[in-house]
User: Which sequence fits this backbone?
């Protein structure tokens, strides 16, 4: 269920409920001429804006009154027709005539001169006359030009007969149709809209279609009817209101009811229409009912003559601004209050809801622009603000599309301030006091409430909210509500600016505000207003001590003015917010100093804490959570900073707390200019080897630095740490008594910030880099047990024998040794290795197995004679024979393998030759139409050539193109062609 | 009349029944979700509109809440003319109101739109101890006359939305009416055309 319409309000009929009361009409002019009682009334405003009121009296007078804005109503002309009561007067403005019904006859009078009086004797015993009303749509669709002298139609009720009449140019009536038989109870009233004629008789309302000639009952009247049928054309919507007792049923031109019934306080003889309202008069009262809602919105009392009927007339075109009322011999004119004044009046009465609904109504009817609606929302907002209803006030501010956020600055910040000149001097309708600080607004409001309470005791009613009078709010509560709601408003402004820069963060606000945010039009605030909004939002957050919000604002994209907030935030101890703010404003140095101070403070307070109570936090490293945050924020700033001095200045304390973050700062790729490595290396605390190592690693591995110094330093540092680790390992291995747990703890104590083992990295680095100085490294590790490293270094230095000795004898890594021989690639290296295996020094046993393996794998590389010479005489025959056998077999195997490869190659060659031969001996059929694929000349008997891709060219083109490139541009030398039929498969 | 446009359906719905049966209370409960202990009697007719979603279509009900007073009986045909649905409401504590409801059913069967979907609502179902119309009797009557029947309570909201939803659900399956919307005008013998002459 989404909507409902209001109608038939169940409030007491005719009661003017306070909440719906509007001041729509105001008395404009009145006249009490000494004339017989008035029987009929009409009002019209001509194209020159001259308004005439016509009255018909019981004595047969037709009197015209002119209405002057300055002098009011005055008697203009007066004629007497036949001395019989004038039952009705109709203005036909477009032919400048007046139609008057008196004593059953119709008279035609000139509108301005009331002369000559012309009787339409064709029609007798007329009891009702009505002119045809053309709706705008109908006129457009049927080519009727309103104001044209043609098309003056009338419906006339003559007893039970309906007569349709047209008055032509000469003023002569032509009867178009006479309808009888339907209206047996006598026609009492008629309305004619376009093609529809609605007729009221004593028993029923009928709809007669002029186009089809058909007739039907709309509804019958309850019997016995208290009153005669009455109806009123509602020209604005082209509808007709049919009366049943005091109830008005509005029907459209098809006789269908539209909207709920209007229930009037009293039975009224005549009804008027003005804008969205119906006017009824009775017993000295004029009442205004809203057509859509059915509410009685205004009641005006006027002094009528007792017992005399009241009449009301409108300008009959639905757009008039005046209604005329007659009672006895008195005539009054009421004018529609301009919409703006109506709204102002409602606002003055503090009936904000009704004011807004009036504006919306007017907007729907196209009588009010969006700008005005926005203006009213803003105005209502200010009024509510001074009424201390802050939440509603802010809702209205948010609904206003034109209100500038700067208009609210004076409520938050004392004048003069940075933004004083920005504040528009917009006083709207001047219904609220000038802006002042919220504190003052609250104080003044409270004083007002106090006064109202006092006055109420004295029996005087005031406009102050009843709720406040019953439960006077506390100053603190009001101020908090004021600040909270202002915060809400400024937050929406701030977020809407963010949305404008495509960083939508609507998740930060409530559902209600999100709707405002989505509809927000404040995306294009000027920079200075945005500065004001964001700075004041921070002010407000601070007033509410909403630290999370402050920090979120400070760390998000914002336009806060730092100078305005600096001292404020530091005084109130919101240092973190300040640090975030500095950071977001690129004031890195200031932000960093705060983080440094905070980290230090946290650590001292934390130490105190952990001494005092048993702290839950991880105390093993003595670093608190807050400290971690501080160091993280600081490192975030430094990671993006290219300011070398700044980075190096703060590196120290960050490293003290978190080495990993320190490394991240150094190796960050977020900065535009890299830091100079030399200075960085100099600045790193030499005790923090790990940081240095990581930095060098990054320089070498990620930045591809080829500075030999860095490579050497890195190699040395890695070696050192590998040596240390090695020593420690030895130490632990030696101390058998130490239990496992302690080892674990000591391991943890020595916790490195790196995961991988330095030893492996060292080996990898030594092998992969050629830029370090192997001698220097060797100096360091020569006496150590780092054999593999030594082997790598010797290899770099080309000390083959030493390398082989380490690999083969020290490490007994035969595979590595053989691999190394393969790298050297010379047979003598293998021989040297074999010698080592057979005659290891230092009293080692000969390594026959390794020797046999070597001969088996690389026998072909060794000269059998040399091998035999080297074989030791002590070698057991069994082993020796196996060795020799293996070697000889290996050689034979090697030879046969060669033969196989040779023969396979030959086979391939033959295949290829065959394919080539077949390709070249292909037949090509050339006829008269055959042309060169390149120059498109007929080949005829010319010499031609064919490429492997079957393109054919004449000899000339063949010479031009060369034999390896065909017409299609394919170069067969580069882009080799294979055909499936060819035997070449490899 | 119910008229379709895409998946939107506009349907005229009329509530009929004796005075005090609870027509207005039923509508106000459905449209606004409110209930007034002392609902003032409707004069003329009240109009509401409410949209609800049924079977992938939205049905916009234009609801005419008519006056139960006998004085306004003659207005009723205007409201039920061309209606796609009607709810005839009676008060389960009042036999008279049930009799009146039957009269309304007869009237609609005779004069209403033949495709109109009718529901019979036995309202004030919360007043079980004061019941005077047995539910079974009403159910039987509804079955015989092709109405669908529910006992409702605007006070406790029992079956209120259900009856409107049920009507909405039955709507799209209804046949289009033979008569066009609006009043049915009857042909009348041709009138004499007489040219006017000068006076």
Assistant:
């Amino acid at each position: 269920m989404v909507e409902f319409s209001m109608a038939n309000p169940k409030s007491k009929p005719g009661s003017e409920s306070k909440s719906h009361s509007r001041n729509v009409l105001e008395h404009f002019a009145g006249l009490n001429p000494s004339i017989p009682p008035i029987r009929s009334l009409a009002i019209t405003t001509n194209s020159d804006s001259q308004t005439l009121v016509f009255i018909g009296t019981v004595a047969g007078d037709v009197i015209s009154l002119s209405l002057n804005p300055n002098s009011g109503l005055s008697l203009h002309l007066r004629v007497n027709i036949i001395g019989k009561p004038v039952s009705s007067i109709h203005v036909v403005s477009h032919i400048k005539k007046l139609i008057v019904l008196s004593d059953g006859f119709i008279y035609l009078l000139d509108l301005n001169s009331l002369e000559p009086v012309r009787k339409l004797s064709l029609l007798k015993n007329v009891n009702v006359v009505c002119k045809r009303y053309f709706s705008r749509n109908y006129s457009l669709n049927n080519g009727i030009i309103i104001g044209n002298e043609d098309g003056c139609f009338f419906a006339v009720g003559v007893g039970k007969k309906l007569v349709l009449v047209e008055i032509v140019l000469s003023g002569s009536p032509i009867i178009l149709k006479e309808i009888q038989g339907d209206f047996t109870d006598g026609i009492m009233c008629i309305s004619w809209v376009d093609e529809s004629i609605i007729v009221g008789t004593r028993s029923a309302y009928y709809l007669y279609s002029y186009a089809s000639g058909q007739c039907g009952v709309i509804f019958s009247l309850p019997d016995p009817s208290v009153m005669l049928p009455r109806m009123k054309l509602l020209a604005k919507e082209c509808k007709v209101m049919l009366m049943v007792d005091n109830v008005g049923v509005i029907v459209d031109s098809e006789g269908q009811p539209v909207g709920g019934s209007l229930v009037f306080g009293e039975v009224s003889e005549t009804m008027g229409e003005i804008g969205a309202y119906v006017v009824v008069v009775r017993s000295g009262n004029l009442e205004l009912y809203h057509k859509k809602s059915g509410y009685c919105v205004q009641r005006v009392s006027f002094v009528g003559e007792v017992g005399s009927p009241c009449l009301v007339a409108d300008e009959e075109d639905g757009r008039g601004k005046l209604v005329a009322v007659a009672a006895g011999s008195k005539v009054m004119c009421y004018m529609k209050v301009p919409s703006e004044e109506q709204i102002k009046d409602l606002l003055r009465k503090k009936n904000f809801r009704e004011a807004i609904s009036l504006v919306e109504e007017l907007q729907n009817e196209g009588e009010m622009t969006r700008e005005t609606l926005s203006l009213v929302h803003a105005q209502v907002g200010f009024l509510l603000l001074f009424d201390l209803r802050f939440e509603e006030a802010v809702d209205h501010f948010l609904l206003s599309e034109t209100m500038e956020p700067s208009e609210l600055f004076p409520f938050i910040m004392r004048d003069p301030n940075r933004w004083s000149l920005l504040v528009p001097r917009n006083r709207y309708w001047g219904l609220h006091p000038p802006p002042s600080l919220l504190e003052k607004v609250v104080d003044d409001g409270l004083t007002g409430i106090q006064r109202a309470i006092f006055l109420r005791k004295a029996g005087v009613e005031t406009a102050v909210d009843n709720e406040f009078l019953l439960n006077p709010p506390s100053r603190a509560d009001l101020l908090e509500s004021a600040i909270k709601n202002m915060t809400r408003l400024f937050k929406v402004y701030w977020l809407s600016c963010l949305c404008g820069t495509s960083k939508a963060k609507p998740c930060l606000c409530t559902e209600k505000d999100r709707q405002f945010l989505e509809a927000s039009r404040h995306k294009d605030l000027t920079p200075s207003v945005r500065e004001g909004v964001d700075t004041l939002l921070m002010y407000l957050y601070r007033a509410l001590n909403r630290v999370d919000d402050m920090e979120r604002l400070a760390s998000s994209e914002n336009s806060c003015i730092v100078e305005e907030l600096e001292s404020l935030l530091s005084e109130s101890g919101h240092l973190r917010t300040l640090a975030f703010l500095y950071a977001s404003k690129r004031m890195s140095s200031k932000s960093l100093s705060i983080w440094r101070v905070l980290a230090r403070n946290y650590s001292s307070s934390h130490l105190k804490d952990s001494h005092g109570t048993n702290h839950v936090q991880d105390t093993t490293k003595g670093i608190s959570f807050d400290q971690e945050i501080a160091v993280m924020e600081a490192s975030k700033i430094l990671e993006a900073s290219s300011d070398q001095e700044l980075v190096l200045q703060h590196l120290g304390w960050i490293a003290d707390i978190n080495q990993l973050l320190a490394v991240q700062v150094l190796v960050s790729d977020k900065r535009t200019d890299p830091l100079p490595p030399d200075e960085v290396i100099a600045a790193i605390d030499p005790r923090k080897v790990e940081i240095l190592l990581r930095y060098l690693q990054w320089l070498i591995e990620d930045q591809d630095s080829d500075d030999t110094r860095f490579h050497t330093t890195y190699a040395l540092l890695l070696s050192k740490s590998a040596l240390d680790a090695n020593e420690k390992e030895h130490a632990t291995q030696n101390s058998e008594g130490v239990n496992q747990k302690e080892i674990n703890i000591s391991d943890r104590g020595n916790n490195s910030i790196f995961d991988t083992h330095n030893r492996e990295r060292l080996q990898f680095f030594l092998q992969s880099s050629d830029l370090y100085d192997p001698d220097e490294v060797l100096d360091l590790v020569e006496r150590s047990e780092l054999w593999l490293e030594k082997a790598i270094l010797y290899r770099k230095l080309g000390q083959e024998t030493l390398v082989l000795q380490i690999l083969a004898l020290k490490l007994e890594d035969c595979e590595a040794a053989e691999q190394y021989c393969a790298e050297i690639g010379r047979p003598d290296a293998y021989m040297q290795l074999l010698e080592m295996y057979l005659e290891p020094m230092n009293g080692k046993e000969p390594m026959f197995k390794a020797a046999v393996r070597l001969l088996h794998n690389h026998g072909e590389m060794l000269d059998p004679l040399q091998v035999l010479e080297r074989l030791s005489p002590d070698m057991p025959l069994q082993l020796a024979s196996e060795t020799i056998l293996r070697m000889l077999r290996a050689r034979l195997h090697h030879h046969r393998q060669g033969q196989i490869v040779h023969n396979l190659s030959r086979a391939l060659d033959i295949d290829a030759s065959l394919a080539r031969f077949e390709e070249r001996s292909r037949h090509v059929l050339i006829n008269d139409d055959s042309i060169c694929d390149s120059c498109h000349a007929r080949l005829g008997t010319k010499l031609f050539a064919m490429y492997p891709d079957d393109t054919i060219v004449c000899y000339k083109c063949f010479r031009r193109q060369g034999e390896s490139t065909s017409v299609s541009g394919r170069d067969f030398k580069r882009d080799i062609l294979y055909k499936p039929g060819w035997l070449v498969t490899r | 009349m119910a008229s379709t446009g895409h998946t939107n359906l506009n349907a005229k719905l009329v509530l009929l029944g004796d005075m005090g049966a609870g027509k207005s209370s039923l509508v106000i409960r459905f449209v606004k979700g409110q209930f007034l202990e002392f609902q003032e009697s409707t004069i003329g007719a009240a109009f509401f509109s409410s949209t609800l979603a049924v079977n992938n279509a939205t049905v916009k009900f234009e609801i005419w809440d008519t006056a139960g007073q006998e004085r306004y009986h003659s207005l009723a045909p205007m409201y039920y003319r061309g209606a796609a649905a009607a709810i005839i409401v009676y008060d389960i504590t009042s036999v008279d109101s049930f009799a009146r409801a039957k009269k309304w059913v007869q009237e609609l069967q005779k004069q209403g739109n033949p495709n109109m979907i009718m529901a019979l609502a036995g309202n004030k179902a919360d007043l079980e101890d004061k019941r005077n119309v047995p539910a079974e009797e009403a159910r039987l009557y509804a079955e015989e006359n092709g109405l669908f029947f529910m006992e409702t309570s605007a006070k406790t909201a029992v079956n209120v939305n259900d009856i409107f939803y049920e009507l909405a659900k039955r709507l799209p399956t209804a046949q289009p009416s033979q008569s066009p919307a609006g009043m049915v005008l009857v042909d009348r013998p041709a009138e004499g055309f007489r040219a006017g002459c000068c006076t």
